[in-house]
Structure formats: structure tokens, C-alpha cells
Design goal:
The structure holds two protein chains of two kinds.
Chain A: H1 15-20, E1 23-24, H2 26-39, E2 55-56, E3 80-88, H3 94-112, E4 144-149, E5 188-194, H4 197-211, E6 215-226, H5 252-258, E7 272-281, H6 283-287, H7 291-298, H8 335-339, E8 350-351, E9 354-360, E10 366-376, H9 379-392, E11 399-409
Antiparallel strand pairs in A: 1-2, 3-5, 3-6, 4-5, 6-9, 7-10, 7-11, 8-10, 9-10
Helix pairs in contact in A: 3-4
Chain B: E1 26-33, E2 39-43, E3 46-48, E4 50-58, E5 67-71, E6 74-79, E7 89-95, E8 98-103, E9 111-117, H1 128-163, H2 166-187, H3 204-209, H4 223-234, H5 239-258, H6 266-284, H7 296-321, H8 323-341, H9 357-378, H10 381-387
Classes of the chains: A alpha+beta, B alpha+beta.
């Protein structure tokens, strides 16, 4: 006998649907109103009509299954994230890993569709809930969960060494590294991003629970605001108050050239390497720094985010420009000068970072910074950029790289399969 | 009807699945799909009595991750971790005639009727429910033994305290500690006769095992940890210490009399074991339990022993119901015990390294993670054994 699904219909009177849709947020939405006022003779300058406006629809859901990269890399960057790494248990074998990836995949597909992963309130008096419940009825909220595999997955213990992605090895020591071992490395990573922080947290909460016995939590970062822009998104600001991600990799052609893995073993194709860095900011010092110095350090103006050689955010920086005294307008060791593709043989990476806070440190200072996440088809790209930045970036006075890891992010599975299934067949 | 045999289950490749094989085992294919809502297909849905192999394949359902073959509310066989893409898995049962159902939680229609034609099986001996009952009786013996041991140990502690010898009293304290920690979840609910349940004054758990972090100023210090405080923090035995010891003896004696003839259901054992693991996470990992003596690892080991004894009593029956779960829990107990062994030190009262703040900082997280890995599968047991009756 076959048990067929009854098509579920959305109730148009369901108040959740109404309340979830059409939330506008951010400065861009505000500027629309300002622009409208300007049309009636107000004194404010209207923004360009081409400026992106971010619309948050908590009913948005993204597919988990596919033929390209996993969701959460090129997906329009959501506002919140929870990132967690895991150590595989000493006693776990390849079959345990296979079952974990399959269970995680099924659960991620459910949650990305806005569904619980099992009963929130099970029938049996003595039963424990399969789904912890805190995201129940919150909708999909644009959730994506992205799995990364660390170098030790391909060590000898699981018999997977022959399938190791060619560039997967711990990142080398880099200039200015100040890494805390407790915030570094890991065998697996999960990046959950959503438009509702509770939806992102629930995903990590339940996936970590599911992993117990096979993989244990190692370190985690809660990102409360996006600090990079994807294609068509307004540029957000990091906790230093500067726009971050203006020159992020956004074009499909660049994605193909710099991010998508195409030249390694068949199973890796469509994947990418994920670099994660926990970058602590010395926020009080930065706050007390005069704005001209802040702009000198970054190489951009604070409010508009324009390069010091331009007037608008997306003006191309002119690294050759000199002032009247013959000094470069953008210091060669300014952050944007060292990071610019023009000064790195054309090299680009896809950034997808988040602002984070861990509250206060022991000295009563704000403990906060940037969870830097980047995607590229060879971690050497990040290593090259960070070698320069770590050596001479003016910004180093105000930041410290305290956590780090590298993962290979396998391609999305097709329907009926699971993440990294190719490793087990 | 009843299960006569449950063969070991192993991943196999899915067979065509509907015909009886040459060995007389009927093949049934269960297929999970999610293309048009999560669905569970059983083919055929009627078979003759005898051995039946169920082969489960999840083609595309992300909403169904487990299924059970039920006889009423009773679980006869089950499979978990049924994520799309994994190899098919199978289990074999010998079924007598009757009406069963295949339960797929998460499916649009969770229950699928499954009919076995032919004679009903005679009531079997040694089935899961009976094994579980047997286990609870054995566990009752274990609890009685621990309580008797506690009565003797606190009397020895009182003698040492009365002698005024701090080192001897510390030794006896360490010897007295484990008994309560092994069976705490079974005996922590007793009140002195006539006492109000809302006051700690007559709450035997408070009077015997209160800690600094659970101090009720209206009642004050009492019991084992009051003695611990005097022996380790104060380093001296006072008249008040002796009063704590004599009160402890009378309270434990009262507890032993109240706890006589306790009866347990299988789910009580499972819930009790889970509660002992919670005790570890909330009080031992943090070093809160033995704040002055740092003997927390002794209590930790006692909580584990008590939980493992409860599990061992359930294990034969649980193995009939869910062999994979029983094996997982057994394995995780092994992991935790292996970690505890690292800290054994016969030169220290109680036989374990002191759980100092330095040890806690270095190893607390690893110990907690090992217990977490045990807690999750352990939390599944109560419902399984409760419905097996």
C-alpha cells in the first residue's frame, strides 16, 4: 500500500504569512523615504535609483539539493549566522561519519524548508523530542546550512586519504597570527545563516545534538550582523563603522575563476575551500582614533565608503594618485591597498563575514570583532593576501586574528543523496 | 502474537523484496519517499506467518528517519538513521498471525497496517517485556545493597569523627560518599514522616546531601557535605561536626527504612539513569559537589556506576527491542569509564585524582562531552522500554 501525501495548502488568512512578508530594513529602505521627501523639495540628496534595497522575507527558503555548490556560499547573505566546528570522536569510524553526513543532510533539507526535524512534542510519555522546538513556526527565514570537511577527515583513520582535496591542509602560520588553540581547527564545520537568529541557532543546536557520540563541539561563533555584501545587496558595516565588502567578489565569471573547484577529483568539483578567521577588534582604541586616521588606515571615507581618491562607494580606487606633496593619497599599507586585486595579480576571494560579540573580556573591554569567512578554489589565495595584510596592514594595530581553520566545502548533493556521499561509494 | 526471534541487522543491498526466498523467509520492502510529501510504502502489506525480513530503503524522504514495526503499542523491531542515500537496511522477525503496523514518524500518514495471516504465535517466554521485568527485580537488589552499604559507611564515618582524627574521618568520608551517588535518583524523594514537602527541614535528600550551592538558610548546613566542609576547609572536628555525623546516621537509617521494598518499572530505571547523568553534568563537572575535598571524580564514577547498573538491568530486554541503541549506550559507557580510569589514584581517599580547579579547567570539557555523548542515546531508552510492556 502506498501512503500518499495530501497536498498542503497555505491558508491565506494565516496571520503568520502576513506578518512575515515584506519586511524592509536598513538604511537603504530609509533612504527611499528620504529620496521621496527630496522629490517634494527637501534638502536631502536622493540616492541613486540603482542602489540596492534589502528586502527580508521570512518565508524565503532555499533548496538544499542541487548540482552546484552548497547553499550558503552564493546565497544572498542573510543577516545572522551561527558557525560551529566539531571534532570527530576518537572511536568513530567511516560508517559513523557516513551516517552523520546523511542524517545531517536530511535534517538540513528539512530545516531549510522551514520544517521541524521530528516531533517537537512526541506522543509517548517517556519520549524525548526529536526537534528541540525553538524554531517551530518561525518559518524557513532564508536558512542555509553549509558543511565543511577539515583536513583530518582525509587522514588515515577513515580510509579517505585517497580522496583528499588536493589543497586541503592546515593553513600555514601567517604574520601576526595570535591564534588560540581553543578557537582553531576542527574536523567539521557548519555555517548556519538565516534572517532570524533563532532559526540559525536552532539549526546548529539540533545538528550538534544529532552528532553526539560521533562528533563533539569544538568552537562556535554567533554572528549578529552581516559584514559582507553579495550581488545586489547593500554594503553593510563592520564594528569599526566602515563599509565592508564593497569590492567583494560578486560576478558569476569571477566565481567560476576564483571560487569553484574545477580541476581536482570529480567528487570535489563544484565545491570550494572555506577559510574562517575569528578576528578580534580592539574596539575602544579604534573608537578613540581620529576619523582622519581611521580613513587613512582603511583607505576609504567613513560615511560614504568612497576610496580616498574618489567620491562614491563604488569609485575604483586610484592607488597611484598622489597629493600635492607627492605622497600617495591611499597609503600603500592601507587595508584596501594591500587587499586590492589590482595589487595582487588580480586575485579575488568571496567573503561572507559576520560581526560577532562574545560580550566583555576580563578587562571590561568589548569582546567583539569580525568572523571572517571566505570561499576560494585554492586556500593559497587567502594565504597570499593574509601574508601581505598580516605583515604590514595599518589595521593590524586595531585587530588580532585569534581563531582560524580551513575546510573543504563539498558540492551540494542531488536529491536522494547526501553531502559528501561520493566518499563512501 | 509475539516475536519469536530477532535476527541481527546489517546494511544490505535492497532486493526486489516481495517474494518469499528459498530459505522460507518472506521478504517485505519498505520504501520511504519525499517527492510528494513524506510517504512510507510497505510491499507486500500481508504475508504468511513465519520469518519475515523487512528491507528499508530511503529514496528521498528527509522527514522520515526511523520506523518501527508495532504490535499495538509494542515495538517489535525498528530501524533508525534512515537518511536518503544511505544503503538499505534490513531486520528479520518471526511473526505469528495478526494485525501489526509499520510506524513511520514524520510521514504524512505515519501508520501503515501490516497483516500476518495464519496461526497466532504462542506467547513466548523470554520476550522483551519479561526480560525487562527480570531486570528491574535485579536492579531492586542492587539498590537495597547500596542502601545497606550506606548505613554501615556513615556509621563508620561517625565513629571516625567521634575519635577526633581528621585524616581517619577523611578516609571514611570518601568511603561513605559513593553509595548515595549510585542510587540518588531512586532515593532522593523521601521526607521524614509528617514533614511538609515544601520545607527542607524534613527533606532527607537535603539533610543527607545538601551542598553549599543548595544551602537553604532556614535549615542550615547538614549531612555529608557539612562534614566535608569541616574536615577539609576547617581541617578540624568540632562538636558541631560530631552533631552532623550523628544526625547523618539517623537520617540515613530513616532513609533505609523508607526505601524498603521499592518496586521499579523499566522506565524508572531508564529515567533514573538519565537523572544520574544529569547530576554529573550539573554538579560534578563544575566541581560543585565536593567543593572542599575535590573528590568529585569519586562521585562522578559512582553516578556512572549507578546509571550503568540500571542500564545493565535493562540491556537484555532493550537488546530485543533496539539492539543498535543498546550497543551504542554500552559503547558510550565504555568511553566514559575509559576516561575515568585515567584519573584512578589509589593513594588518594576514594581512589581518584583530586578534581582541582586546574584539572577541571584542563579536562572538564572533555569529560562533559563524553557524558553528553552518553546522555543522548540514554534519553531514548525510557520510551522504548515503557512501550515494551
Amino acid at each position: 500500500m502506498t501512503i500518499e501525501s495530501e497536498g498542503r495548502e497555505e491558508d491565506p488568512k494565516d496571520p503568520r504569512l502576513l506578518s512575515r512578508r515584506g519586511l524592509f530594513y536598513g538604511a537603504a529602505a530609509g533612504s527611499l523615504l528620504v529620496g521621496a521627501a527630496a522629490g517634494f523639495g527637501g534638502g536631502f540628496a536622493a540616492r541613486s535609483a540603482a542602489e540596492p534595497v534589502d528586502v527580508v522575507d521570512l518565508d524565503t527558503s532555499y533548496p538544499f539539493y542541487g548540482t552546484g555548490e552548497q547553499a550558503g556560499i552564493r546565497t544572498p547573505q542573510q543577516r545572522y549566522s551561527v558557525y560551529m566546528t566539531f571534532d570527530i570522536a576518537a572511536g568513530a569510524g567511516a560508517t559513523d561519519l557516513q551516517v552523520l553526513f546523511a542524517r545531517w543532510s536530511g535534517a538540513i533539507a528539512q530545516m531549510m524548508a522551514g520544517k521541524p526535524i521530528g516531533a517537537v512534542q512526541p506522543d509517548g510519555e517517556y519520549a524525548v523530542a526529536n526537534d528541540t522546538g525553538e524554531a517551530y513556526e518561525l518559518g524557513p527565514a532564508g536558512l542555509t546550512v553549509t558543511l565543511g570537511l577539515g583536513p583530518d577527515v582525509f587522514g588515515r583513520r577513515f580510509g579517505l586519504a585517497p580522496q583528499k582535496p588536493v589543497h586541503l591542509a592546515p593553513l600555514p602560520a601567517l604574520p601576526s597570527d595570535n591564534l588560540d588553540p581553543a578557537l582553531t581547527g576542527g574536523d567539521l564545520s557548519l555555517q548556519a545563516c538565516a534572517e532570524d537568529p533563532q532559526v540559525a541557532y536552532h539549526a546548529i543546536h539540533d545538528l550538534a545534538r544529532m552528532a553526539k557520540g560521533t562528533a563533539a563541539v569544538r568552537w562556535t561563533v554567533l554572528g549578529f550582523g552581516r559584514a559582507s555584501a553579495g550581488k545586489g545587496q547593500s554594503t553593510p558595516r563592520n564594528l569599526q563603522g566602515f563599509k565592508d565588502g564593497t569590492r567583494n567578489l560578486k560576478e558569476d565569471a569571477d566565481y567560476e575563476q576564483f571560487v569553484r573547484v574545477t580541476d581536482d577529483a570529480a567528487w570535489t568539483r563544484g565545491g570550494a575551500y572555506q577559510v574562517v578567521r575569528k578576528i578580534q577588534m580592539r574596539i575602544e582604541n579604534w573608537d578613540a582614533d581620529r576619523v582622519s586616521d581611521q580613513q587613512h588606515v582603511i583607505g576609504r571615507t567613513k560615511q560614504a565608503g568612497a576610496p580616498l581618491t574618489g567620491v562614491a562607494e563604488f569609485d575604483a580606487p586610484d592607488f597611484a594618485a598622489q597629493d600635492a606633496s607627492g605622497n600617495p593619497v591611499i597609503d600603500p599599507t592601507a587595508h584596501i591597498a594591500l587587499a586590492a586585486h589590482e595589487n595582487n595579480g588580480g586575485l579575488k576571494i568571496l567573503r561572507r563575514g559576520y560581526n560577532y560579540t562574545d560580550g566583555l573580556n576580563h578587562y571590561g573591554q568589548l569582546d567583539a570583532g569580525l568572523l571572517f569567512l571566505s570561499y576560494q578554489n585554492d586556500p593559497a589565495a587567502f594565504v597570499a593576501l593574509q601574508t601581505k595584510l598580516g605583515s604590514s596592514d595599518l589595521l593590524n594595530e586595531y585587530i588580532s586574528h585569534i581563531g582560524s581553520a580551513l575546510f573543504f566545502v563539498p558540492p551540494a548533493p542531488p536529491p536522494g543523496r547526501y553531502l559528501a556521499y561520493q566518499l563512501f561509494e | 502474537m509475539a516475536v519469536l526471534a530477532l535476527a541481527a541487522c546489517a546494511p544490505t543491498t535492497a532486493g526486489p523484496g516481495t517474494s518469499a526466498s528459498g530459505s522460507g523467509v518472506t521478504q517485505v520492502a519498505i520504501t520511504l519517499t519525499g517527492d510528494t510529501g513524506d510517504a512510507c510504502t510497505v510491499s507486500p502489506d500481508s504475508v504468511p506467518a513465519g520469518p519475515v525480513t523487512f528491507t528499508v530503503t530511503n529514496r528521498s524522504s528527509t522527514g522520515i528517519t526511523e520506523l518501527e514495526l508495532l504490535d499495538g503499542a509494542r515495538i517489535l523491531g525498528e530501524k533508525e538513521n534512515l537518511a536518503p542515500g544511505l544503503p538499505a537496511v534490513s531486520f528479520t522477525l518471526t511473526l505469528g498471525g495478526g494485525r501489526y503496523s509499520v510506524y513511520c514518524p514524520g510521514a504524512q500518514t505515519p501508520n501503515t497496517p501490516f497483516t500476518v495471516t495464519g496461526a497466532a504465535a504462542p506467547t513466548a517466554t523470554g520476550d522483551a517485556a519479561q526480560l525487562l521485568q527480570q531486570g528491574t527485580a535485579e536492579y531492586g537488589q542492587y539498590v537495597a545493597t547500596q542502601i545497606a552499604g550506606m548505613v554501615t559507611a556513615v556509621a563508620n564515618l561517625e565513629t571516625a569523627v567521634d575519635s577526633g582524627d581528621v585524616a581517619a574521618a577523611q578516609e571514611k568520608y570518601a568511603l561513605a560518599r559513593p553509595f548515595y551517588e549510585k542510587v540518588e535518583s531512586d532515593v532522593s524523594g523521601f521526607l521524614l514522616p509528617g514533614a511538609a514537602p515544601t520545607s527542607n527541614r524534613g527533606n532527607l535528600d537535603y539533610l543527607i546531601d545538601m551542598r553549599a550551592s543548595s544551602l537553604d538558610p532556614a535549615v542550615g548546613w547538614s549531612g555529608l557535605h557539612a562534614i566535608e566542609r569541616d574536615l577539609w576547609q576547617g581541617g578540624a572536628i568540632t562538636d558541631q561536626t560530631k552533631k552532623y555525623a550523628s544526625d547523618l546516621v539517623s537520617n540515613v537509617t530513616e532513609l533505609a527504612s523508607l526505601a524498603q521494598g521499592l518496586n521499579y518499572r523499566p522506565e524508572d530505571l531508564a529515567n533514573g539513569a538519565a537523572a544520574l547523568l544529569e547530576e554529573i553534568q550539573s554538579n560534578k563537572i563544575s566541581g560543585e559537589e565536593e567543593r572542599y575535598s575535590h573528590l568529585d571524580l569519586l562521585d562522578f564514577a559512582a553516578n556512572i556506576e549507578g546509571a550503568q547498573q540500571a542500564f545493565a538491568a535493562l540491556q537484555p530486554g532493550l537488546t530485543r527491542i533496539d539492539p543498535a541503541l543498546a550497543a551504542t549506550v554500552a559503547r558510550e559507557f565504555g568511553t566514559v569509564n575509559g576516561m575515568l580510569d585515567i584519573y584512578r589514584d589509589a593513594s588518594i581517599p576514594g581512589g581518584f585524582t583530586y578534581y582541582t580547579p586546574a584539572v577541571r579547567a584542563a579536562d572538564g570539557a572533555a569529560l562533559s562531552k563524553a557524558v553528553q555523548a552518553l546522555q543522548e542515546p540514554m534519553s531514548q531508552i525510557a520510551e522504548k522500554v515503557a512501550t515494551a510492556q
